[in-house]
Design goal:
Elements lengths: L1 H15 L4 H4 L5 H21 L2 H6 L1 H28 L4 H26 L3 H15 L1 H9 L10 H31 L4 H4 L1
Helix pairs in contact: 3-5, 5-6, 6-7, 6-9, 8-9
Length: 195
């Protein structure tokens, strides 16, 4: 959670100066930027609370309403991201990487939402864990950009998409490996558990 707050504070500082270089990159696309930042921020903040078993079990109505707010915020962030992707002056490699990330974000949320609508809470939980892994990419990716020397390994047109892909694909693969091990160790390899 500290990483989330640090990320939010650093990014607030970056875009708070409306005349600063970071903001000027988006000045003609600021509506998309603010939608993405607002929705993404709320999503990043609400996500961890959804995984607290005590809240989920003791206060299911709060869990449901927080989940609805999370999904709505995510959709606002995704609309902003789509606008930024469509209007970016960056090359196609960067566009494809961000578009794939957004599709993974939306797909995992849709699968989680569908699972809970079909009264499959274990499947829902798994998909929402995947969704938060993709949600957290915005923290992990920005952290990766700050690693000393990482951006000297190649041109930005290569490093930015590579770091973005690594920031969500590797954690998702790690989660799938861990979840599979958990299923095997508990003997719980059912069709629902594998979803």
């Amino acid at each position: 959670m500290l990483a989330v707050f640090h990320f939010l504070w650093v990014n607030y500082q970056k875009y708070a100066d409306l005349g600063g270089p970071a903001y000027l990159l988006f000045v003609t696309r600021r509506e998309w930027l603010w939608a993405h930042l607002a929705g993404g921020t709320l999503t990043v903040l609400l996500g961890p609370f959804q995984f607290l078993s005590q809240v989920r079990m003791s206060y299911p109505a709060i869990h449901r309403w927080t989940g609805r707010t999370y999904l709505l915020a995510m959709l606002v962030g995704a609309v902003g991201a789509a606008g930024l992707i469509a209007t970016t002056p960056a090359g196609p490699g960067i566009q494809v990487a961000f578009a794939a990330t957004e599709l993974a974000w939306l797909f995992t949320a849709l699968m989680g939402f569908t699972a809970i609508r079909n009264r499959k809470p274990q499947v829902h939980r798994r998909w929402m864990i995947r969704n938060y892994i993709v949600t957290f990419v915005f923290v992990a990716f920005r952290a990766a950009l700050l690693v000393p020397g990482v951006m000297t390994l190649g041109p930005p047109s290569v490093m930015i998409p590579a770091l973005l892909w690594i920031s969500w694909v590797v954690p998702l693969l790690a989660y799938e490996w861990w979840a599979g091990r958990q299923d095997r160790s508990t003997g719980r390899v059912t069709k629902a558990a594998r979803a």
